[in-house]
Structure prediction request, 298 residues.
Amino acid sequence: MFSGHSIVTINNYDLIQVSDIKNYSANFNPHLYFILGVSRWYFKKVRIYFFDRTKVKYTVISEDGIKYSNTFQPKDKKGNLLKINKLEISRDTLFLTINGTEKFSATDIMLRNKIFKPAFKILYIGQAKGNDFNRFAQDRLKSHSTLQYILSQMVDSKIVYDIRLLLLSTSEEKITTTMDSGEFAKISVDEILDFPDESNHINLVEAKLINYFKPEFNEKFKNGNVPEEHHKSYDDYYKKKFNSMVITFENLFPCSFYTDHVKDFTVPFKNIDYSIIGSENFFESVIDPYINLKEKQK
Prediction:
């Protein structure tokens, strides 16, 4: 069998709030995005650090009743340290307002804490580029119907966690294995190195991630096998004789993902490894054209 194998890794990522979408500008071209739910944290008490008025000493508590205390140095929107004169906790205790103007989320403070490993519920996975492959995630998410529906579920208290958006770009490292003897060696180097294009790559990775995690708000690709030969959006993988792929999250920050289907997917330690199946991928389908060509030349 002709064996094409690829490893997909995360190149770049951004974790943003829904409120950031309007003015968000990525410094990379995202391929995919995850709509994530994360358990809320609440401020229990705060005070200005006695020896340094640029620091806040805080205690927060999770939905599960876990307490955590530390300090942080708040910055304004321009990235300048604030000299703190006044602290106010919101009525719902989700937010801290400093000096009457600068607002900070208890959940975001925890997400920025390097020793904290958050658990995210994957609610939806989508492509960051539209069908024309030119629209990027920022444009798509501004009016995304599924995101708006998820947010409406929060307003109605049917979803009891905060929403974050994870934007990702991926790269694909290809490893092709062949046999050196017999007619199989007639396959050209150009054909061995001819790999699926970016649109096929993103289509397949998106479909497999959905099929593996089965997020609550996705509809397509959750059932059956992915890929299947009748899915023409990644036909290039069949034609170019790929039959396996590993998706790894090793370059993502430490965290865990879960859905109703997958209970605990620990990043960066777990991978998604699967076969790309199809009759076009078998040895005979690769070598037959070359055997036939040689027969005609006799």
